[in-house]
Structures are given as structure tokens and as C-alpha cells.
Amino acid sequence: MERIGIRSWQSPFVATAALLLSCAAVAAEPPFACRVGTPDIATGLRTGGANEVVALRPNGNPVVAYYNLPPPGTPQTYPPDAALYLRLCSDAECTTGTTHTIETSTAAASVDLSIALRPGDGAPVLSYYSRNPASPGVRIYVCADAACSSGALRMQTNEPEYGITTSVSLSPEERPFVAFGDRRPEGAVSRRDDLAACRCADAMCTSTVCRTLDGVGAKGLYPSTVWRTGPGTDDTALISHVGYDGAFVYQCANSDCSAGLDHPVHTTPAGATGASYSAMVRRMNGLPLVVYGLFYNPPSAPQYGLPILIDCVDANCTAGASRTLDATERDLRLVRMALRPNGRAVATWGETGGAASLYLYQCANRDCTTGRVATTLPNVEVGHDLAMRGDGVAVVAFRPLSSGTVKLAYCGLPGDLIFTDDFEAP
Q1: What is the reported pLDDT for 18?
Q2: Concatenated DSSP letters for 228-282?
Q3: Rounded CA separation 83/14 (Å)
Q4: With contact defined as beta carbons under 8 Å apart, do 85 and 138 qualify?
Q5: Which helix (H) or strand (E) holds 17?
Q6: Mean pLDDT of successive 10-residue segments in the chain (426 residues)?
Q7: For residue 385, what is the DSSP state?
Q8: Which of 26, 55, 158, 259 is the most buried (most CB within 10 A)?
């Protein structure tokens, strides 16, 4: 006998009501608002653009990594306090926590820092670039447990510009995978500008294999990685990255990424000087979304940029449709993106100089065919990062301008309202 489920039939009235609710949810969703938390994640830091990154435990407690810069005017001196630190918050507001020093006498600015948490035990994993001239290059730090009671520092090279921008992710078996830009000098004026990656042999990264993934053209900077996991997928990585010629997505052919294909998803148009920064998420339907900065260089102004969204046409992002998220040209720095539980994306980008602000973009649907700059955090430094809580609150790590502190902002819908995409097809 045919089994009849409770949702096997709907009256025209119910179907019409569902459609109206769906349309109302999309149209009426109010803009996000941000509340800056009271506690300081860190204090007494030198100002000037060092970066910080944030990841969230399942209970919402943040884990924040951040740099302290070396003193101004001493580019060849890296004192012990020019270090990389890790803050493990004990609650969602980070009113208390534990701070670990990961590496001393090292520092980098902008986006040379990335974090992931192992799903099994919650142990933090970091990738970053050390600018210390005594031992420059890409680093991988793997905590032994969630408390980071001990850890292992894996130095991958002793060459300048090798790993100048990094992105760490974890494969389905929890092996760290670090994609990075290789900008090692070649000759007096040229650089490699390649996309490269290091693949760890196990969860503690006791050994690695590092290789160039794509060395054709100037590319490989500011990578962001997602994994094709789940039913019907092949457990391989996709890596968004940028260069002078535009934005690209590298499709790994196997779990070790020993081979693959690089797909140009947006070519730098006439009048633009190139692309910078990238972030990628994987939607509920398996198709990636990519956001990156497209830069121009007007004769009488700094190098301004626009945030560009790439709506990938398939699971490997072999091509995509591009949309400009914000047509206001800014001195753009950094882009980040995360998915809300309802499948809609949130993107952020910073602005150095001018307003020195952080902008949060709220997609109105899962394909982000429309949306808006929902809110702005004024007077912030360059570095910032974005992570999404299970309740749909975006947690943003940033530095208030000239404050020497790291703060967390909590951005979301008004707490007394519920807006949902339950009627939107996955």
C-alpha cells in the first residue's frame, strides 16, 4: 500500500501561503547590524595593519590567531614580541580565555595568516608566512589538542616570498592542506607568481609534499580552498586564487592535488590592473561562490578596487557569471565570505585610507543574485576575518584603528525576528 506522508499534498491555499512567505522572507529581511563585544581579545599591540583570523567551535566559542608587528623603522629586527599568538576563548563573548605564543620573532601583515579547526578534536591548525629575514617562508603549526597544550611548527622552506599568502584547510581525513602564493624572485626584476600547495601526510603534519600547482602566468595569490565532500563527490579540493590576469579556480584531480586543471573564471577587463584577494564557499547545491577584488589604478588616485562575485556554473567552477557587489570604488583590502545556516552568503571587505571601514554584504538569496551592503564598521585597520555561528550570527575579528587591540563584532538580524529560506529549493 502506498505510504502517504504528512507533506505529500498541500492545498492551493497552503502552497500560495508558502510562496508568499518565501517572497516576504526575501524582500522583508532587514539588514544585518553589528554589535562590538566588550572584551579585548588582545591589547598592547603595535598598530599598522597586522592580521588576525577567527574560527568557531561548535558551541560558538571563538579561536583567534593574531600577529604583533615589529617596531616601526626596524625592518631587519624581529624582537621576541613580534610574534604570532593564539587566543582560545572560554565563552562566546571571549570574556576569558587562554593565550598561547605560537612563534616569536616573526610577523607578517595583510592576509598572511589562516586558521582551521580539526572536526574530530577541535585542535587548531595555522598556516602563515614569516617575514623574519633570518628564516622566511611558509609555516604550518598544528596543535596537538583543542587546548593547544602542545604543538608542532613545520617550517616548509627558508626562502623569501615562498608562501607570501596562505590558506589552510582540512581534507576529509583531517590532513592539513595549505595553498599559497609562490612569489620567489627570479632574476633582478621578475617573480614566479605561481599557485603552490603543501599536503600533509597525516593530521599532525609529520611530513609534507609541497608542489607547484600552476606556474603559467602571474597568479596564485590570496588562495581560498573548499573541499568537494559528501555523496556524489570525490573528496578533492577547489582553490580560488587571483593574479594580474583575473580570478581563477584550480580543480584538484585527486585528494593529494598532484594534478589538476586551472579554470579562469573572470578575466581582468580593459582598464583594470589585476585582481587581489579571494574567498570561496560551497553552497548547499554543491556549486561554489567566489568573491574577489578587481583593481583599477586611476592616474590621480590610489589603486581602487571593486568586490566582484563569481556565481559558478558547476561544482568544479569551470566558469561563472560575474556580478559587482558594490559599485563604489574604494581602496579595498581583504575579502571574506561565509554561509549562513539558511544557505545565504555574507561577504566582508575592508578599506584602507579614506573611511578606513569594514563593509558587510548581505546576500538576499542563495545564489546572491541580489543583496546589499547591510552595515559598516568604521575606523578599523586593514586585517579582519569572518566566521559564521550556527545561529546565523557572523563573528568578525578586527582591530579598531590605532587602538592596539583585537576585538570581535557579532553581526546578524535583530534578535526578536526570524526570517527563513525554508521554502527556497536547496
Answers
A1: 41
A2: E-STT--SEEEEEEEETTEEEEEEESSTT-SSEEEEEEEEPPTTEEEEEEEEEEE
A3: 59
A4: no
A5: helix 12-28
A6: 29 40 54 95 86 95 93 75 94 97 79 89 95 87 97 86 91 94 80 92 95 91 91 85 94 94 94 91 96 79 85 96 94 93 95 85 96 93 92 95 95 66 50
A7: E
A8: 55
Instruction: Please tell me whether residue 13 adopts helix, strand or coil conformation.
Output: helix
Single-letter amino acid, residue 397: A
Q: Which three cell numbers stand for residue 332?
A: 579595498
Give residue 16's pLDDT.
41
Upper half-sphere CA count for residue 55 (Cβ side, 13 Å) = 20
Strand partners, 393: none
Return the closest-CA partner of residue 321 out of 311, 329, 336, 306: 311
Calpha distance 192→11 (Å, rounded) = 63
Strand, helix or coil at 110?
A: coil
Q: Specify whether the CB–CB gap between 118 and 169 falls below 8 A.
A: no
Beta bridge partners of 30: none
- Please answer whether residues 350 and 363 qualify as being in contact, where contact means their C-beta atoms are separated by less than 8 angstroms: no
411: its cell numbers: 553581526
Dist CA 262 CA 315 (whole Å): 14
Grid look-up 584577494 returns 277
Note whether 75 and 48 are within 8 A (CB). Answer: no
Q: Please give the C-alpha separations between residue 191 and each of 217, 237, 292, in angstroms, as whole numbers.
A: 11, 26, 22
Give CA torsion, residues 17, 23, 24, 25, to 10 deg.
110
User: Is residue 410 a contact partner of residue 37, using CB atoms and an 8 Å limit?
Assistant: yes
User: Which set of grid coordinates corresponds to residue 197?
Assistant: 600547495
Output phi, psi for 310, to 5 deg.
Answer: -110, 115
Cα separations in angstroms, 45 against 48, 52, 395, 401, 405: 9, 12, 21, 12, 6
Q: Which of these, 143, 58, 113, lies nearest to 397 by C-alpha position? A: 113
CATH number for the domain whose boundaries are 49-341: 2.120.10.10
Q: Do the beta carbons of residue 201 and residue 154 sit within 8 Å? A: no
Residue-level pLDDT at 7: 27
Is 256 exposed, middle or buried (CB count within 10 Å of its CB: 0-12, 13-18, 19+)? Answer: middle
| pLDDT score of 75 | 65
State the cell numbers at 348.
566582508
